[in-house]
Amino acid sequence: MEQVTNIFQNITEQECSQMMRCFQAAEKRYTAGSVISTYSRDSQKIGILREGEANLVRIHSDGRQTILEDLHQGDIFGEALTFENFDIGTMQVVCTKNCRILFFDYACLIRRCQKACTFHSQLVHNSLQIMSRKAVQLSERLEILSQRSIREKLLCYFSILAARNGRETFQLPFSFSSLADYLAVDRSAMMRELKKMKEEGLVDVEKRRIVTVFPRQPF
Amino acid sequence: MEQVTNIFQNITEQECSQMMRCFQAAEKRYTAGSVISTYSRDSQKIGILREGEANLVRIHSDGRQTILEDLHQGDIFGEALTFENFDIGTMQVVCTKNCRILFFDYACLIRRCQKACTFHSQLVHNSLQIMSRKAVQLSERLEILSQRSIREKLLCYFSILAARNGRETFQLPFSFSSLADYLAVDRSAMMRELKKMKEEGLVDVEKRRIVTVFPRQPF
DNA sequence: CGTGTTTTGTTGCAAATGCAACAGTATTAT
DNA sequence: ATAATACTGTTGCATTTGCAACAAAACACG
User: Fold this and answer.
1) What domain count does chain B have?
2) Which residues in chain B show pLDDT less than 70?
3) Which of A61, A204, B81, B100 is the most buried (most CB within 10 A)?
4) A56: closest CA among A39, A41, A40?
5) Measured CA distances, B49 to A9, A50, B114 (Å)
């Protein structure tokens, strides 16, 4: 089974452009830092991030704002998908890099158009896939953050990476500083703990190459 | 705009039963503790939790298992939705309470059936809604768990509840013990911090009724 | 090549947190 | 009504963690 990363996956270039006409899709460009606000009351648009990066943020009453999701290439977003039963106006999509975004009517996605495009169910399938993968990714990070200690967080994350790589050796996908952010812990405290773990022979770290030495299950 | 909590929302009883015949849907019952494992290779089923509670868990190679999602009434799940591009076999749905689950073919959801039911797009809409709400809920919890201190976690969660309720007073949706679990902190440490916050006049707590006293923005 | 910037590695110290344990209260079941 | 169970509130203590600060190393770039 193939991984769906793009909402247009398994839809040919030709079908795609046909569909875009059919959907009256429009592509827009945004510069880093700008806010996407094309939400009109009568026609709900959904956006597809073709290029760049953006955040879905909530603006709190006290002025603080928190990032609800970070959107990457291929992600879909829109009032119709996330803003429902939230105070619109408290939610925004903010570009963190220059973005290219494709908009089309949400109604087109869930309903077959008049021309009854055959690839329509593929589109729905892809949307569901993208959204469910996101849920799993979020749950994974939640699982890590709900560990109590730095050591447990590291081990939890490492075991996920190891599993993903199919062996007990793997490459860290980012710097130790970012790792600390990802685990939501203090960097120096994390380094200290990592050192201890090395000394105890739990892991082997050289550069960003990690070798986990998990104790065998006794059973 | 109405909140979608049920995949059959805005679909009449009659349409629903018609659709169920059309989909060859089948309802099954599971007792608390049992594992749902009706995933066959050729026909991908999705499940709808009509009653009860269940967890989507991953079984790690070291025997540990972690909860990826907890499923409640109205949630949808299935290999087609979450298990793709994961090692099936490492993922299970485990009932935590007695459950009533409705199964039908995933293909039916994304593709119109032969009889071209008109309420089909409503079904797709509902599915997308349920899944996107889940993503927002998960992000919300992530936002909370990425706070560094117990105090920050409490305040973050409280401000979400307050915003949700539209005022600075609200009711805790669960016990303090569960709250500690939700925030992934030690219960006694949380009680201690809560007491301090009361003493400092930051919050007012009586039973499960919380009144937040956030300092006014200066500007 | 040199220079400015980011990342890594360390440490002392104060504060926050988890753990264990216990008693009192509320809630539920029998 | 009574027993059993779950929840609340509290405390002492050891440990972990965050914070601040600094130096060395690695990297980026003109």
Assistant:
1) 2
2) 1-2, 37-43, 59-67, 82-90, 112-118, 214-219
3) B81
4) A39
5) 30, 34, 26
Give the CA B94 to C1' D1 distance in Å: 38
Asked if the Cβ–Cβ distance from B143 to A184 is below 8 Å, we say: no
Q: Are residues A132 and A151 in the same domain?
A: no
**Subset of residues 168-197 in chain A with CB less than 7 angstroms from any atom in strand C:** 175-178, 187-188, 191-192, 195
- Assess A82–B contact: CB distance below 8 Å, yes or no: yes
- Quick one: which residue's CA is nearest to C8's C1'? A176
Domain end point (choices A136, A167, A198): A136
Residue type (1 letter), B162? A
Average pLDDT, integer, range A52-81: 74
**A56 - beta bridge partners?**
A69, A93
| Per-residue pLDDT reduced to its tens digit, B97-107 | 788 888 888 88
In a domain, A167, yes or no: yes
pLDDT of residue A60: 60
Q: Is residue B8 part of a domain?
A: no
Q: Would you tell me which residues 137-166 of chain A have a C-beta closer than 8 angstroms to some C-beta of chain B?
A: 138-143, 145-148, 156, 159, 163
pLDDT of B117-138, one tens digit each?
667 778 888 888 888 888 888 8
Which residue from B68, B72, B87, B84 is spatially nearest to A130, judged by alpha carbons?
Answer: B84
- Cβ of residue B182 lies below 7 Å from strand D: no
pLDDT in tens, A22-51: 888 888 898 877 888 655 555 678 888 888
With CB atoms and an 8 Å threshold, state whether A85 touches B110: no
Cβ contacts (< 8 Å) between A4 and chain B: which residues?
84
Tell which of B136, B159, B187 closes a domain.
B136
Q: Are A93 and A47 in contact (CB under 8 A)?
A: yes
Is the overall model pTM greater than 0.90, yes or no? no
The CATH number of the domain where A153 resides is what?
A: 1.10.10.10
Mind telling me how many Å the CA of A40 is from chain B's nearest CA?
14
Class of residue A5 by CB neighbours under 10 A (exposed 0-12, middle 13-18, buried 19+): middle
Q: What is the DSSP letter of B4?
A: P
